[in-house]
Specification:
Layout (H helix, E strand, L loop, with lengths): L2 H19 L5 H14 L4 E7 L8 E8 L4 H6 L9 H12 L2 E8 L3 E14 H6 L5 H5 L1 H6 L4 E8 L4 E6 L9 H11 L6 H7 L7 E5 L7 E8 L10 H9 L10 E8 L2 E9 L8 E2 L3 E2 L5
Antiparallel strand pairs: 1-2, 1-10, 2-3, 3-4, 4-5, 5-6, 6-7, 7-8, 8-9, 9-10, 11-12
Helix pairs in contact: 1-2
């Protein structure tokens, strides 16, 4: 299928995702970004996600992964991303200088560019990450927590240009490495909202990473998230009507296997869920730099 046709199909499908999630779709904000990304990464892996946050706060994002060149260059030249001297810009540069990386971009269909991702060709440990220019002080302050829960090594870094936050993704965890009782203990330690029995049952012992959100303006971990991959048939849609609508009706392209990822996200004052659909089937076979494979569905 020609790239132009793929792009039009993606635009149509993103409108449908926004309808399913009761989220905004702003043509003027998202379509110029799609134009740029189609030009610089026509073969990118794509995934689409939403959350169970309240309508008005809920967004639909399309994630483009496996860029070999820094996409912020083209996005800035097009006037779609602005650098203002925030430390997160230092983080992007410092990580890319420290190890080989592949890039990704999250685009909110209601507002435009949101996050830039760095998939690390070599894992960085907490000491190495903490020493990089621009890192939030909270990363250094929480080094012991990061090491004890998740091994203290990281495969992915994401910076959020909208929320002015940063996500650190731990090394991949093997099945059984993070049992439900450990998830409950982590949340108690952080003094976060506790996980319900239904959430722990959905995650089982198959969360394949832990990711934390840090801020430059607040101390400590601001959010923690546990993801697990499912097929459409096995996804825990009973947990929320938004999950059910999204998973049952998500438009997908290609004939290969499509995975869905369930995320249980916790904060000091509550929780919500995220759901991600592997939009094109190659996303289900995503391998991070270093030939690290994302776990299969359950």
């Amino acid at each position: 299928m020609p790239t132009s046709a793929v792009t039009q199909r993606l635009r149509d499908d993103l409108r449908e995702y926004a309808r399913l999630a009761d989220a905004a779709y702003d043509v003027s904000r998202v379509e110029p970004v799609l134009d740029v990304l189609a030009d610089i990464a026509p073969d990118a892996l794509m995934a689409v996600r939403t959350t169970t946050e309240p309508v008005g706060e809920r967004e639909v994002n399309v994630r483009f992964m496996n860029f070999t060149a820094d996409p912020t260059v083209a996005l800035r030249e097009a006037g779609l991303l602005e650098f203002t001297g925030h430390p997160l810009e230092q983080v992007l540069a410092a990580v890319a200088e420290a190890v080989p990386v592949q890039f990704g971009v999250d685009v909110a269909v209601g507002s435009g560019v949101q996050k830039v991702w760095l998939a690390l060709g070599e894992m960085l440990d907490v000491q190495q990450i903490s020493a990089l220019p621009g890192m939030p002080d909270a990363v250094r302050a929480d080094a012991e927590h990061l090491t004890r829960w998740g091994g203290g090594k990281f495969l992915l870094v994401a910076v959020d240009f909208v929320g002015r936050t940063m996500n650190l993704y731990s090394q991949l965890l093997t099945p059984g490495q993070l049992p439900p009782e450990d998830i409950a203990a982590i949340l108690r330690e952080l003094d976060f909202a506790p996980a319900s029995d239904a959430e722990l049952d959905a995650l089982g012992a198959h969360a394949y990473t832990i990711y934390r959100t840090f801020s430059w303006s607040d101390p400590g971990v601001r959010r923690i998230c546990f993801p697990r991959r499912f097929s459409r048939e096995t996804f825990p849609v009973h947990l929320d009507p938004v999950l059910e609508r999204f998973v049952r009706s998500a438009p997908l392209v290609g004939d290969g296997a499509h995975a869905f990822t369930f995320y249980a996200a916790y904060k000091p004052d509550g929780r919500y869920y995220k759901v991600q659909a592997d939009y094109n089937p190659r996303s289900s076979d995503l391998r991070l730099p270093g030939d690290v494979a994302i776990p299969p569905t359950h």
